[in-house]
Amino acid sequence: MLNLFKIEWLKVRTYRTFWVLFLGFLVLFPLAFYFSAYKYMDTFATKGDFQEEMLKRMIDAPFVFPKVWLASSWMGGMFFILLGMLFILLITNEVQYRTHRQNIIDGWSRMDFLKAKFSMLVFFVLVSTLLVFLMGLLVGSIYSSSMSDMFTGIKYLGYFALMATVYLMVAFLIGILVKRTGLSIIIYFAIVCLVDNILWVIFTLKGNPLGYFMPLEVVDSLVPNPFKPKMLEKRTVEDYALIIAAFTYISVYLYMIVSYFKKTDLKT
Amino acid sequence: MSVLTINNLSKNYGGVRALKDVSFTVPEGTVFGILGPNGSGKTTLLGIVMDILKATKGSYSWMDQQHSSNAIRRQIGTLLETPNFYHYLSAEDNLKIAAKIKGKGEEDIPKVLELVNLYQRKDSKFNTYSLGMKQRLAIASTLLGDPNILVFDEPTNGLDPAGIAEIRELIKQLNKAGKTIIMASHILDEVEKVCTHVAIIQQGVLKTVGSVASVMNTSTHDNVTSLIIEVSAADNAALKNVLLQLNGVESIAQGDNDLQLTCNESMTAEQINRFCFDKGIVLGKLNLKRKSLETRFLEITGKQSDR
What we know:
The complex is a heterodimer.
Chain A lengths: L1 H11 L3 H31 L3 H10 L8 H12 L1 H16 L2 H7 L4 H34 L11 H24 L2 H25 L11 H4 L18 H25 L5
Helix pairs in contact in A: 1-7, 2-4, 2-5, 2-7, 4-7, 4-8, 5-7, 5-8, 5-9, 7-8, 8-9, 8-11
Chain B lengths: L1 E12 L2 E12 L3 E5 L6 H8 L7 E6 L7 H5 L1 E4 L11 H12 L6 H7 L15 H12 L6 E5 L7 H16 L3 E6 L2 H7 L2 E6 L2 E7 H6 L9 E7 L2 H8 L5 E6 L4 E5 L5 H10 L4 E7 L3 H9 L6
Parallel strand pairs in B: 3-7, 3-8, 5-6, 6-7
Antiparallel strand pairs in B: 1-2, 1-4, 8-9, 10-12, 10-13, 11-12
């Protein structure tokens, strides 16, 4: 696997679009996270009146330990769509340049090709999770008065990694099946921004918990919006159920990708 | 030993049957030409044996091994259809990826780039290359690791006349060095000049296969042994009248600016020249045509294009 990743790395090492999107995530997310924390805490520090104090307690300052892990994971998730787009691009590029054929002609098996791409997926998940951890640690250390239960919410890092994996698996599946760069990215955004949310709204308004099990909502629900007041959070589904569902989705996507790619004609 | 054995290979694309029950073997040490018009199934055939297309029916084996493994493909240098490289990477980086996948070291890269005259441009991005340069890079890539089997699909595609001559020379040299070369082409002249064996495919059907000499000698018609001689003089009409009297001339066809004589095999150019001269006609052109692969090809496939 490491060998396959080294070859994948050769493919992107001098690819400008890769660096634009990758560094885009590595720079924009920390900046956005730091400045929203700064702005937020600054607002409450200067206005100390009673109402504001109530509000502050109600939404439970998202930038201090241990809640900062959720905030960092949630905001990391917003910017992670950049890496989803990049991952689609790396897959559809291969089809466009017919290099997926050449890789196999040169001696990879079809599984090798998929494993190499999967190694890139793992790389994206690891790097982004590390960054979410570092940003949580940094911002939490700046704004927390006590470090006593700083790691209580550390589970959100795991949820983030799971969310990142599911988002990239959806990108992987779309890239392999659709093949065209533009169309794949449009479909990806449609699913991420519209389809999933609309289904969630429809089910949830009917009081049906099925909404939380939509392909992406299942992991979105694990990392809820930290700025949303608690009283609006009506989720009744337990975390473990969502985690099981997320792993099920990952397995199904993997199965679909492998069974399709192993028997298809590699054409453009 | 046979390098490649193909058994009853068929391939359907939806309702289109691109290959129909094709079987043949490629002997070791040959330059094996797969000849056919555009769309006859040559690339489909090569795509299947390289595992990028899946056969509908039939099987194949490399080096008499039952299962075609990836390890075998690593020992084969293949150029299929078009040069496939990462557009945004340099020639050298592209070859590094190919070498890594093949499990070969990078030490061959300067050598193969020199061989196709691209060393000076090794740091240029692939998308800045001309069509001919892309083709030469693809040929360079096939030579990485000095493989014993090479598969070329239209190797001279997009090359200028000098480039075409160089590549043909390279193929001959590789063959002399003991390598087996499988080459698909629709250019008859190319196959005739380079190949030792040929398989002719038309509309997915294998029409004939064998050594170039044996394919040329077995004919579907009975005029096997006839020669074609092209002649012309200042007055072709008078020339025609004279030649009708010559024994051994079977028929005379009017060409654009000449006459095409079909003669029996004992006829020589000298005989015709002397005969005409004695009758007071001086020949402006006298061309003895060996029966070419082109003639055979048209006999086998018919004169209509498949398109």
